[in-house]
Specification:
It is a single chain. 39% of the residues lie in helices and 21% in strands. The chain contains 8 helices and 11 strands. The chain has a 5-stranded parallel beta sheet with strand order 2-1-3-4-5, sandwiched between helices. Strands 6-7-8-9 form a 4-stranded antiparallel beta sheet, covered by helices on one side. Helix 2 runs parallel beside helix 3. The two termini are 27 Å apart. The structure holds calcium ion.
Length: 228
């Protein structure tokens, strides 16, 4: 899942980005309203965290313009004051949720998870594909009851596959939602990660779950044997 974090205060931006990355999110940071709008326009974010007080263009305007462009991306606004007028303005501008500064990082994470769950299909905390189980809150995976040890990035990749189970996931989708703007599209990093992940989830199991569709991408499915 890829998040755009819009925060002009360098120390706060660094701290939030670091915390979110530790939770396996890919994070891009924008430090003013115009930059935020540009990035929201060129990248397909799964969620936006938007500070209200920003240089160039404030968070209310950024939010309004994102909605006016037809985007329904989940958006959390960070307001500095607990003023009813601010909260109302944020929600009116099209925010899905808001947090009042200073807030607890764990609360931000809970709200991020809640909004990401709200997607097209109601997503539960546990995702199951055959005997593979993902606990999306604890960010742990098990297969046949046994824990699989994954790095943060490997987990993020697996969760992305799991949320799109039975569908072909293209390399470009992975680059856009699992990696951030620093990802080099010409590197073979995705292939390397997919191989590593496949070894960890499929080795020693008769039923293979992670399949390559040549020229198309990858599929995580329990019903692919015939096409493999
Ligand atoms: Ca600010």
């Amino acid at each position: 899942m890829r998040i755009l974090l819009v925060e002009d205060e360098p120390s706060a931006a660094r701290m939030l980005a670091k915390g979110l990355r530790e939770q396996a999110y890919a994070v891009d940071v924008a430090t003013d309203g115009e930059a935020a709008l540009y990035q929201a326009h060129v990248n397909d974010y799964d969620l936006i965290i938007l500070d209200v007080m920003l240089p160039v263009k404030d968070g209310f305007d950024v939010c309004r313009e994102i909605r006016a462009a037809g985007s329904a991306v989940p958006l959390i606004m960070l307001t500095a004051r607990d003023a009813v007028a601010d909260r109302v303005a944020g929600l009116d501008a099209g925010a899905d949720d808001y947090l009042i500064k200073p807030f607890d990082f764990s609360e931000l994470l809970a709200r991020v998870r809640a909004l990401l769950r709200r997607g097209e299909v109601l997503q539960t905390e546990t995702i199951k594909i055959a005997d593979l189980e993902l606990d999306t809150q604890a960010q742990r995976a098990r297969r046949a009851g046994r824990a699989i040890h994954l790095t943060t990035k490997e987990y993020a990749l697996l969760e992305y596959f799991a949320r799109h189970a039975d569908r072909v996931v293209r390399r470009a989708d992975i680059a856009a939602h699992v990696w951030d703007a620093n990802f080099d599209i010409f590197s073979n990093l995705i292939e390397v990660y997919v191989q590593r992940l496949r070894r960890k989830i499929d080795d020693g199991h008769e039923l293979k779950l992670l399949h390559t569709r040549r020229g198309e991408g990858y599929v995580l499915t329990a019903e692919e044997e015939a096409h493999a």
